[in-house]
Amino acid sequence: MCNLRSAKDMDHPLVRLNGIDEDVHVRIETKLEGADDPNQVADAVHALFPEFPLPEDAVHPEFGKASNALWSAEKVPIDQFLRMLHTQRILDTALDAIGRNLTGESTFFFLSRQAALSSKVAFPLPDESPLGGVIQVTLTSPALHDWLHAATWHKGRDSVPRSVNDDRAMEKDGEASTWV
Fold first, then answer.
1. Got the DSSP string for 100-145?
2. 79, 121, 144, 173 — which has fewest CB within 10 A?
3. Of 46, 113, 111, 109, nearest to 80 (Cα)?
4. If phi over 0 gives left and psi between -120 and 50 gives alpha, with beta otherwise, what is residue 64?
5. Cross-strand pairs, 81
6. Inter-axis angle of helices 79-87 and 38-48, to 10 degrees?
7. Helices H, strands E: what count in the chain?
8. Looking at the domain 20-158, which fold is it?
C-alpha cells in the first residue's frame, strides 16, 4: 500500500500518496467570515491543496457586508500536503494531530490558514481559533489507520515505533510527551 522509496535510497523519502488513489475519501472545507479576503483564503488553501476548486461566486467583504461562506470540496488530492509534512519534518506531529480524532474509519483535523500563507503546515491545538481561520480536512477509509501510518512514516520509526494515540503522542496542550 505504501508507495514510498526506501529512506536508504534518498535523504528524504519520495511521497507518492495522494489519498485519492488509496481508497481514502478526502473532504476539505474552510469558512470565510467577517473581513476574510477570498483571495488570501484561496492562496492559503492552494498552498496546501493546489487542486482545491474555488467557487466562482466568492464575495469580497465590504463595509456593512461581511464575508459569510463555506468553501468545500471532495476528492481533492492531498499529495502536496503530504510532501510538506515530509519536507518540514513534522511527521510525528502529523500522526498525533491527524489521529487525535480518529474513530473507526474516519478522522478530521484542522490546519492554520495563516501558516499556509507562508507555505507551512501548522496544526492548531484543540479548541483554539487561530488568527486567519482554519482549513478542516476530513479523511474516511476502511483502512485509514494503516494509511495514516504509511503517509507519516519516516526512518526514525525503525528505532522508535509510533502509533496513533500511543504513549509517545503529544500532550493535549501541544507539549511534547516525555518518554525514555
1. TT-BTTEEEEEEEHHHHHTT----PPTT---TT-EEEEEEE-TTHH
2. 173
3. 46
4. left
5. none
6. 70
7. 5, 4
8. 50s Ribosomal Protein L5; Chain: A, (3.30.1440)
Grid cell locating 103: 474513530
CB contact at 8 A, 130 and 30: no
pLDDT by position in tens, the chain (length 180): 444 444 444 455 555 677 777 889 999 999 998 888 899 999 999 999 999 999 877 656 566 566 788 999 999 999 999 999 999 999 989 999 999 999 999 999 999 999 999 999 999 988 888 889 999 999 999 999 999 988 998 787 777 767 666 666 656 666 665 544
End-to-end CA distance of the chain: 31
E-only strand ranges, 11-127: 25-34, 67-74, 106-112
Q: Which amino acid, 152?
A: T
CA nearest neighbour of 180 among 156, 153, 160, 152: 160
For cell 494509511, the residue is: 147
Instruction: Report yes or no: 53 and 29 within 8 Å, Cβ to Cβ.
Output: no
43: Cα within 13 Å, side-chain hemisphere: 12
